[in-house]
What we know:
mainly beta; disordered N terminus; four-stranded mixed β-sheet; 0% helix; 23 strands; five-stranded mixed β-sheet; elongated
Amino acid sequence: MTDKVTIIPSVRQAYYNTFANLPTAGLTAGDFGYATDRLTLYRWSGSAWQSISIYSSAGTYATIPAAADLPAGSVYFATDRLVVYQQQGGAWVAITIYSGSGTFAAIPAAANLPAGSLYKATDNGNLYQVQAGAWAAIVSSGVNYQSFTANGTWNKPGNTTLAYVEVIGGGGGGAGGGNANPASGGGGGGGGARAWRIIPISVLGATESVTVGGVANGGAGTSSNMTSGSPGTAGNYSSFGAWLRANGGYGGLGGYSGAVGGAGGHVGTTQPTKTAAISQAGGLGGIASATGYGAEFGGGAGGTSTTAAGVNGQSSVFGAGGGGSGGSATGGPAYTNGGAGGGVGDWGNGGGPAGGAGAGTAGTAGNACICGTGGAGGGGGTNIGGAGGAPGGGGGGGGAGIVAISGAGGQGARGEVRVWSF
């Protein structure tokens, strides 16, 4: 039933119903009708209903009403597309464009959006525009940088030609100090290797699996007399797909009457031989009471322990530094300082945090250009070794004890994977 209202003093009638049910007989020019389904007000011309207001509503694009049923100029806001449409010539025409942002995987279907719509991909830095029903990159970030400190997936960015990839292995854990009279501190963990490669973007997959070497635990100390400390855990490798791999540093050996520091990590999937290129091999751990060796791209060796003062960890020119060894214990008891952590950007020993009589100082963290340094060895006694600096620093060895528990080794740092695309 159509509701009817008399408008006074103009003596006009107003009808309220769906558009299809508005009357078309018995009307006087100037009568009004409101179509409840179109949300539009009409005026009877004497022969037809003519709209005197426009439709305006919002909802998903799937629920948009038929444009032919609405007056020209009507507007509809599609909440799922964030676009405003207007009835023009009996059809809906987008009068605004979509603009959004998010990961490239979450980009909406271009076919559902008006030409000119924009989308900023937060993961690859590119700006895309709808052109001819498809997304086209219109602004490249120039250089796309993706770094990983845990396992993940690399996504190939658009508008790039080459990828420069660096992978850094995790540092080895420092060993626990020995317990005897005299006793040596634990050996330092070796630093993680650093490898790099330039790869054409065209040969890489749309995604590549990234593995990042996690932290390596230091070895435990011991309270049992005439007992060695526990060795440190070897560092874990890091890799970029099947394209590049850098191994972690080796764990230091437990202190007792002298202990070997962990060898530095090496580049590649197999342990280099003694004839391997010096740029590939990690620094070798020194024998007990002797200094280890530095490296170029391999990690620096951990400091070896002695029944004298702790030995410094070794540096690496491009890889991560090894951890210093723990201080020794003798006599009444008397304790010595732990060795310094190995540095970065150098062949020498030390260069990282200095060793001392107390707990070992943690290694210095690296940045997008360098690796982390090794942790310092703990001073003789119950002092623990310092953790390696991320990425790749070897942990310091724990201090030696006499009767009382000896110090535990420091944790080897995680690795890292870095990818620049340009």
